[in-house]
């Protein structure tokens, strides 16, 4: 989850998010170097006392400021395309979960388990226990097995929503009448927090997302207990 005064991205909890963090750092360094070059040129032009009224063009400069941006764009585009392919559809997911956005809560359906579905409401502040986070905790978490390819089918029941968990590198719009797909693998056990990232009405800020990644044995025990309680 995010912490107070945080400036950077959340710690990566999935391979896709690790790649996104690396790409962010890669692109940020390029932007930093370009900014320094531009500032240096501006400073040099403003402060120089040299003038040449007869310079009409320069083929060398034209070549440099045409080729250099093209090279920079290639250095950004190739890693970006690689990540897009890595985040593409999973061919053989171990688990598929359908997330449905409502005003203003989420519901989850485990399509591989009959009758395993539940609603996930934000826990009111007065009901929080020590160690839980205000506006982020829910009464029923989305539990998944760690180190397993997970496919999430995302839709909405009423208006536009967006299912986003930054630590897992997932953000997908929930559109009424349409199924969007996101895929991820949780690298380690933990609890990962997200929120609806599409303004959906008065209580948009009060429909958090909580994904709990656990070992496979614990997930099987949880799913069995949930099915017995239905």
Automatic annotation (TrEMBL):
<keyword id="KW-0812">Transmembrane</keyword>
<comment type="similarity">
    <text>Belongs to the cytochrome c oxidase subunit 2 family.</text>
</comment>
<feature type="domain" description="Cytochrome oxidase subunit II copper A binding">
    <location>
        <begin position="92"/>
        <end position="225"/>
    </location>
</feature>
<dbReference type="GO" id="GO:0042773">
    <property type="term" value="P:ATP synthesis coupled electron transport"/>
</dbReference>
<dbReference type="InterPro" id="IPR002429">
    <property type="entry name" value="CcO_II-like_C"/>
</dbReference>
<dbReference type="InterPro" id="IPR011759">
    <property type="entry name" value="Cyt_c_oxidase_su2_TM_dom"/>
</dbReference>
<feature type="transmembrane region" description="Helical">
    <location>
        <begin position="29"/>
        <end position="51"/>
    </location>
</feature>
<dbReference type="InterPro" id="IPR045187">
    <property type="entry name" value="CcO_II"/>
</dbReference>
<dbReference type="Pfam" id="PF00116">
    <property type="entry name" value="COX2"/>
</dbReference>
<feature type="transmembrane region" description="Helical">
    <location>
        <begin position="63"/>
        <end position="85"/>
    </location>
</feature>
<protein>
    <recommendedName>
        <fullName>Cytochrome c oxidase subunit 2</fullName>
    </recommendedName>
</protein>
<keyword id="KW-0249">Electron transport</keyword>
<dbReference type="InterPro" id="IPR014222">
    <property type="entry name" value="Cyt_c_oxidase_su2"/>
</dbReference>
<keyword id="KW-0813">Transport</keyword>
<dbReference type="InterPro" id="IPR001505">
    <property type="entry name" value="Copper_CuA"/>
</dbReference>
<keyword id="KW-0479">Metal-binding</keyword>
<dbReference type="GO" id="GO:0005743">
    <property type="term" value="C:mitochondrial inner membrane"/>
</dbReference>
<dbReference type="Pfam" id="PF02790">
    <property type="entry name" value="COX2_TM"/>
</dbReference>
<keyword id="KW-0460">Magnesium</keyword>
<dbReference type="InterPro" id="IPR008972">
    <property type="entry name" value="Cupredoxin"/>
</dbReference>
<dbReference type="GO" id="GO:0016491">
    <property type="term" value="F:oxidoreductase activity"/>
</dbReference>
<keyword id="KW-0679">Respiratory chain</keyword>
<keyword id="KW-1278">Translocase</keyword>
<comment type="function">
    <text>Component of the cytochrome c oxidase, the last enzyme in the mitochondrial electron transport chain which drives oxidative phosphorylation. The respiratory chain contains 3 multisubunit complexes succinate dehydrogenase (complex II, CII), ubiquinol-cytochrome c oxidoreductase (cytochrome b-c1 complex, complex III, CIII) and cytochrome c oxidase (complex IV, CIV), that cooperate to transfer electrons derived from NADH and succinate to molecular oxygen, creating an electrochemical gradient over the inner membrane that drives transmembrane transport and the ATP synthase.</text>
</comment>
<dbReference type="GO" id="GO:0005507">
    <property type="term" value="F:copper ion binding"/>
</dbReference>
<dbReference type="GO" id="GO:0004129">
    <property type="term" value="F:cytochrome-c oxidase activity"/>
</dbReference>
<dbReference type="InterPro" id="IPR034210">
    <property type="entry name" value="CcO_II_C"/>
</dbReference>
<dbReference type="InterPro" id="IPR036257">
    <property type="entry name" value="Cyt_c_oxidase_su2_TM_sf"/>
</dbReference>
<keyword id="KW-0496">Mitochondrion</keyword>
<keyword id="KW-1133">Transmembrane helix</keyword>
<keyword id="KW-0999">Mitochondrion inner membrane</keyword>
<keyword id="KW-0186">Copper</keyword>
<keyword id="KW-0472">Membrane</keyword>
<feature type="domain" description="Cytochrome oxidase subunit II transmembrane region profile">
    <location>
        <begin position="1"/>
        <end position="91"/>
    </location>
</feature>
